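Please check this.
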Amino acid sequence: MPISVSQRRLPAVIVTCLLMLIASFSQAHSGHLNEKAVSVCHDKARSDDCQFEGGHQDLYIGSCQYMSDALMCVRNQPIQKLPAKKNESDPVAMNKD
């Protein structure tokens, strides 16, 4: 029984799909470093405690660890919400008191 063209291409298609899947996993961990997380560990040693404020009044607490050859603050505690900052130029915030 002769092998059809689609049957001959099947192994190549499977290998291509697997290679694309592996490449996407490696890309997930090669992003840019958070500048705040790097700056808080500038004068610290590995495993020193650290914390920094992220966006939306989020407080990240962790320890300094090496990531991509840079020492940065890696969160090891739940994200904490900081109290909202009062902005005097915001009339909505001023009326909440």
Summary: The first helix runs from residue 5 to 28.
